[in-house]
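**User:**
My hope is that you can spare some time for a protein that puzzles me. This is the protein in question:
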Amino acid sequence: MRKFGLIGYPLGHSFSGKYFREKFQRESIEDCVYSNYEIKSISELKDILKDPELNGLNVTIPYKESVIPFLNKKGPVVEEIAVCNCIKILNGELRGYNTDVIGFENSLKEKLTVKDKRSLILGTGGSSKAVAWVLKKKGIENLIVSRNKSPDDGRITYEELNRQILETHTLIINCTPIGMTPKTGDCPPLPYQWIGNEHYLFDLVYNPAKTLFLQKGELAGARIKNGADMLMIQAEASWAIWNS
């Protein structure tokens, strides 16, 4: 039996398990299982890796960066941004990849226009680094927004956002879990009064399908998209890596 799974904490609302179980059933894949490994510390990964039938893992919050020391080899993106969300296990060797960049780039392009030349990235976690990598590749300037100021890397706080910044940064990507089930009444503290029909709001959150962040954007006439397509694309990219 070939085993795959997801490590993270918490995993109560994870997408991957359901997706792969349905995939295995739909495609009559009978020699594979996919499990959630909800671990409270990355140190618990060593016990999971003792299973000789384990072929691959997805990695989610909060371990996309702390898993790096476990890797024997790294793909080019992981080497550059030190963020890994997919591991292939071959002959006891862990090879790390980042499929978030594939999922985000392919999902983003559906509603992206040539006018989207500058972006705001909300959050500073592993996903935000993957998003920044894609935007840099596409020649889109980005500004990181966080609750904590960090002049050294150009990060600004939500309190520093003003009309000029909002009007010149038409692409806004939420890379935080704000607004995710069960806290659906929350949204990033943006000055939403300066968002209009020239904006594109992309939320990596997929549950609920339309977060308060996206609802506010839609009311202002902005293009909106959630993270569901991104997750499906990166899941299939992981499957391709595991079977290559």
